[in-house]
Write a structure and sequence with these properties.
heterodimer, A: about 400 residues, alpha/beta, Rossmann fold, six-stranded mixed sheet, four-stranded antiparallel sheet, globular, disordered N terminus, B: about 270 residues, TIM Barrel, nine-stranded parallel sheet, about 50% helix, about 15% strand, Tryptophan synthase alpha chain (chain B), aromatic amino acid biosynthesis (chain B)
């Protein structure tokens, strides 16, 4: 087994209490501890169960549409003039983002546990849609918690969830965004823990969620690694993915962690710029603490209160980050950087115009950084960007920023 | 012996149950908290549980969530809550006080700094919602250094074997959460509470206090029949908030809070109708 410079075996985390070095763990109310233990036991059984894996692979192939292509963005790369950029097309998955890889997996777990009701939190609405979708397919009752501010920003996704039969519960507490939706989902879970499965959408939350969501999302990196070898005959020189909670990034990065030649960049939301204080970049500008069941880097004030965050993209507008990212930052395996709102908007337009691919605003942060990075590299080098989601959901936000007033009829 | 253990021993000798009101430090106004603590004691409280405001109170129902928001708007933080304990101690050296809150403000302050400040303030115990026994070693080392109790929650979903692991880390008393849910929710099933309290007793000699769902004298008396104490939170917070919403001054808030606690005290002591 290969180890990195610090001697860490990447497959050895988390430990049995869910720790990634100093991070992770299970910081939740006692009422939930037995449900987490039950989930962990079941997951560890099923992870080694061939029938379960066959069922999951079948769903990923025939319902999600995997494998997703690895696509060379030729015109965009030419225009930037540097490394060749390949896009891992998670936007082509059913429901339009990487989120479904995880919801399909967790819904199978819910079914194995005999839970008839699923709940989820959502920011941009992609995880909510992916959860509502799988709930419709399996005939499960579905409640999605969403901040009022995000409901406004992502109205088309709200309507999609309703069409799929889910109940969308508006959350009016705190900053009315993803963090508050997660608080409310936790409150629902603690109340209905007997019959409810909480489908967490990112690699955060109490153990075993960061581990199992990572495992379900690793299909992205496994495919990308094989596709890179097949298409270019070599591994990529760099990987780039946006990081909110960090599930698409960990999914791409994890299968490459032991490939020392592959550099990795997690791109956080710089909002109006790190200096403005209005951003959502805990790894770049935060400090470690405990929120939503795990120890991780957080945006917090000197008294340990969680700060309001800002990002143009609802899906990155979160003050925490998955604990494995905190660990990967501290050991130096992944570089965490930022792209601000304006840079993300430019990348959105740039990719849309040169490749005919409209990325999600979350993804646009990764693209913005990839543009800068590619320009410093040579045409013999390659970068894989995780194109984590499509941008259809964001057209209202984009139009508003660009000052376009169209009436929906 | 800690002030908390001493108080339970004293109550047991008198054949009485502990009445433990919960309020949030700085809610609804910062100036009312310390006088309110005294008023609650005068009305029959045996111990005070002071909530530390947090931006993301995940285990709270709407009533206490709003109390946290009001307290934060009043700029009350962990240090201010500790200062309130200091102020309370100037006139009351007998009544145990514990802080109830979430992990992050304490982690941010640092466990050692917190323990030193808590000792200096005259605090007796800490109850964190989100530091389970698996994660508690570091904080307990500091709390034990200064002789502070760490109060743990046991839930209806806690398996038997786990109760032992919790009891091994706990001191002062065990807090039994009577409901699956957030604070202020639902209705109590006293038989179910009695069953779980009995289960806890098979693992520990620590006193058991029951919280979540105790709203009035009747529910307090039912629970008091099986446990050593009851915690009253949402009902009290709501009562005081209603007085504030009606335009009441601090004296009116004290009266509202003390009135409810006096009623519940009477119920617990079995002298109410």
């Amino acid at each position: 087994m290969t180890t990195d410079v610090t001697g860490t075996i990447f497959s050895s985390v988390p430990d049995k209490e869910g720790h990634f070095g100093l991070y992770g763990g299970k910081f939740v109310a006692e009422t939930l501890m037995s449900a987490l233990a039950e989930l962990e036991v079941l997951y560890r059984q099923l992870a080694d169960d061939e029938a379960f894996q066959r069922e999951l692979d079948h769903d990923l192939a025939h319902f999600v549409g995997r494998p997703s292509p690895l696509y060379e963005a030729k015109r965009w790369s030419d225009r930037i003039g540097g490394a060749r950029i390949y896009l891992k097309r998670e936007d082509l998955n059913h429901t339009g983002a990487h989120k479904v890889n995880n919801t399909v997996g967790q819904a199978l777990l819910a079914r194995h546990m005999g839970k008839r009701r699923v709940i989820a939190e959502t920011g941009a609405g992609q995880h909510g849609v992916a959860t509502a979708t799988i709930a419709a397919r399996l005939g499960l009752e579905c409640h999605v918690f969403m901040g009022e501010e995000d409901i406004r920003r992502q109205s088309t996704n709200v309507y999609r969830m309703k069409l799929l039969g889910a109940t969308v519960v508006p959350v009016t507490s705190g900053s009315r965004t993803l963090k508050d939706a997660m608080n409310e989902a936790m409150r629902d879970w603690v109340t209905n823990v007997d019959d409810t499965f909480y489908i967490i959408g990112t690699v955060a939350g109490p153990h075993p969620y960061p581990m199992l969501v990572r495992d379900f999302q690793c299909v992205i990196g496994r495919e990308a690694r094989a596709q890179s070898l097949q298409q270019t005959g070599r591994l990529p020189d760099a990987l780039v993915a946006c990081v909110g909670g960090g599930s698409n990034a960990i999914g791409l990065f994890h299968p490459f962690l032991e490939d020392e030649s592959v550099a990795m960049y997690g791109v956080e939301a710089g909002g109006h710029g790190l200096g403005s204080g209005e951003h959502a970049a805990p790894l770049s500008a935060g400090t470690p603490g405990v929120l939503h069941g795990n120890r991780t880097y957080l945006m917090q004030d000197e008294d340990g209160q969680i700060m309001h965050t800002h990002s143009v993209s609802a899906g990155l507008d979160y003050p925490g980050v998955g604990p494995e990212h905190s660990w990967l930052k501290d050991i130096g395996r992944v570089n965490y950087v930022t792209a601000n709102d304006e840079e993300a908007m430019q990348a959105f337009h740039s990719l849309t115009r040169t490749e005919g691919i409209m990325p999600a605003l979350e993804t646009s942060h990764a693209l913005a950084y990839a543009e800068k990075l590619a320009a410093t590299m040579t045409p013999e080098q390659t970068i894989i960007v995780n194109l984590s989601g499509r941008g259809d959901k964001d057209i209202n936000t984009v139009a508003e920023i660009d000052g376009i007033n169209f009436q929906e009829s | 012996m800690s002030r908390i253990a001493g108080r339970f021993q004293q109550l047991a000798a008198q054949g009485r149950k502990a009445l433990i009101p919960y309020i949030v430090a700085g809610d609804p106004v910062a100036t009312v908290t310390v006088p309110l603590m005294h008023a609650l004691v005068a009305a029959g409280a045996d111990m005070i549980e002071l909530g530390v405001p947090f931006s993301d109170p995940m285990s709270e129902g709407p009533v206490i969530q709003k109390a946290h928001e009001r307290a934060l708007d009043n700029k009350i933080r962990l240090r201010d809550a500790l200062a309130m304990v200091t102020e309370f101690r100037q006139h009351d050296v007998d009544t145990p006080v514990l802080l109830m809150g979430y992990a992050n403000p304490i982690i941010r302050m640092g466990y050692a700094v917190f323990a030193d400040l808590a000792l200096e303030a005259g605090l007796d115990g800490l109850l964190t919602v989100d530091i389970p026994p698996e994660e508690v070693a570091d904080v307990n080392a500091e709390l034990h250094r200064v002789g502070m109790d760490n109060i743990f929650l046991v839930a209806p979903t806690t398996p038997d074997a786990r109760i032992q692991a919790i009891a091994d880390q706990a001191s002062g008393f065990i807090y039994y959460v009577a409901l699956k849910g957030v604070t202020g929710a639902g209705h109590l099933d006293s038989d179910d509470v009695a069953h779980h309290v009995g289960q806890i007793r098979s693992h520990t000699t620590l006193p058991v206090a029951v919280g979540f769902g105790i709203k009035d004298a009747a529910s307090a008396r039912r629970v008091g029949a099986t446990a050593e104490g009851v915690v009253v939170g949402s009902a009290l917070v709501e009562h005081i908030a209603a007085a504030a919403a009606a335009g009441g001054d601090n004296a009116a808030l004290l009266q509202a809070g003390a009135g409810l606690i006096a009623e519940i005290r009477a119920g617990l002591d079995g002298i109410a109708s």
